Amino acid sequence: MRRIIVGACVTIAAWIALGAETPNWPQWRGPEGTGIAAPGTYPVTFSAAEGVLWKSALPGKGCSTPLVWGECIVLTAAAGEGTNGLDCAVCFEWTTGKKLWQTELGQQRPGRHRRGSGSNPSPVTDGTRVYVYFKSGTLAALDFKGTLLWQTNLQQRYGKDSLWWDLGTSPVLAGGLLVVAVMQEGNSYVVAVDPATGNEVWKKAREYPGREETRQSYTTPLVVRAEGRDTVVIWGADHLTGNDAATGDLLWQCGGFNPENKSVWRVIASPTLERGIAVVPYGREQFVAGVRIGSNGDITATARLWEKRGMGTDGASPVAFNGKTCFVNFKGKMWCLDLETGNELWSTMLPKGKGVFYSSPVLAGDTLYLCREEGDVYVCRVKDDGLTVLNQTKFDDVFVASPVLLRNRLLLRGEKHLWCIGK
Questions:
Q1: Main-chain dihedrals φ then ψ at residue 220, nearest 5 degrees
Q2: In terms of residue numbers, what domain contains 375?
Q3: Which of 368, 326, 367 shows the shortest CA–CA distance to 348?
Q4: For residues 199 and 203, what is the distance between their CA atoms, to the nearest angstrom?
Q5: Radius of gyration (Cα) for the chain, nearest Å?
Q6: By the 8 A CB rule, do 339 and 320 touch?
């Protein structure tokens, strides 16, 4: 492992202190992990030639969404290519996009999918440390100067990754612990480590029967605070489950998502949550369900509020807001459903563009931001009766990571550059 520091870090301590007082983006899909940003005056009419405050070159391929804390923007990427590349974390300065540091963490395991990478999982922060996770199995903590605090490898500790494709789940912070869900062909588990040391606090098996590829999941857990404790909500292997963050104990589970026991029903899109209702996409864009989470034990028979067939999302995760949920499929078909009933409020096709939708949308107020694979960015107004496209523009980049909306700016993490758009 070697480490490269770029630029002066004298003011980083001040920036971290600032982070406690200013809005931040601590993880994939924002403060609550649901794709909802704080309302603001975000850019609407922009393009690759107009409204770009700065763009910064990335050291290599990666699909992780950046986190922002104070004046620090941190993401993961490869340094180099193929098996000669290295897992690394990179920090950019919020105002100028200047690269502050780059810390390398050992040999990468490159992506198998053409749009995947060895750096799909997004980093997460508690404001003191940054936690990163890679396809190689490396899990590590750094401070905001890029200093490595601890490093471990989950695959060396607990067994080889048996996913068919590129590991995608991001770590989450829950109950004061760092939690990772590993869902694969066999030996699936959830593990929590001490954020200060990386030492295991608890580890629980998460094994459900299933045919080939049904137990594989690329989703990221949600963290729900209720009744004085954090619950880790996990989606995969045809089951939505809730685990006590402090102990790992299973609190509740909801099954019945694959009654015909079909094969190859792996899940990629993560669920979202509003008003105690989880929106759960599955079945390769053909199903979506609403589940009222909580209670105890097996809630399969009582928790499902609705299920819709012939619609859904396989890559981009849904958003839920104001009693509604919206989601987009690979080709750009979008639906809006009532959260309580599942009744369709409207559906529409987004204007044509190149590639599909892997990136999960982010909503600020009534304005939705979406990125298509091969560079198209959409800004849309969401209403009860439909969708209005306010802007469609194209960037010379590839977008798999989710947009970041913060402090009246838009961050877009591409394959080649990190873009900052604003006034």
A1: -110, 135
A2: 3-421
A3: 326
A4: 11
A5: 20
A6: yes
The CATH number of residue 331's host domain is 2.130.10.10
Residues in Cβ contact with 32 at an 8 Å cutoff, skipping those fewer than 6 apart: none
The two three-digit tokens of residue 80, written as one number: 């180099």
Which residues make beta-bridge pairs with 335? 327, 347
User: For the chain, how many structural domains are there in total?
Assistant: 1
> What is the reported pTM?
0.95
3 state SS for the chain = CCEEECCCCCCHHHHHHHHCCCCCECCCCCCCCCCEECCCCCCCCCCCCCCEEEEEECCCCCCCCCEEECCEEEEEEEECCHHHCEEEEEEEECCCCCEEEEEEEEECCCCCCCCCCCCCCCCEECCCCEEEECCCCEEEEECCCCCEEEEEEHHHHHCCCCCCCCCCCCCEEECCEEEEEECCCCCCEEEEECCCCCCEEEEEECCCCCCCCCCCECCCCEEEEECCEEEEEEEECCEEEEEECCCCCEEEEECCCCCCCCCCCCECCCCEEECCEEEEEECCCCEEEEEECCCCEECHHHHEEEEEECCCCCCCCCEEECCEEEEECCCCEEEEEECCCCCEEEEEECCCCCCCCCCCCEEECCEEEEECCCCEEEEEEEECCEEEEEEEEECCCCECCCCEEECCEEEEEECCEEEEECC
pLDDT tens digits for range 201-222: 999 999 999 999 999 999 999 9
pLDDT at 12 over 50: no
Tell me how far apart the alpha carbons of residues 259 and 179 are, in angstroms, rounded to a whole number: 30
Residue 88: what residue type? C
Taking CA 241 as the corner, what is the angle to CA 274 and CA 180, rounded to the nearest 5 degrees?
95
* pLDDT score at 21: 65
Sign, CA dihedral 222-223-226-230, equals: positive
Q: Give CA–CA dist 60/213, Å, rounded.
A: 29
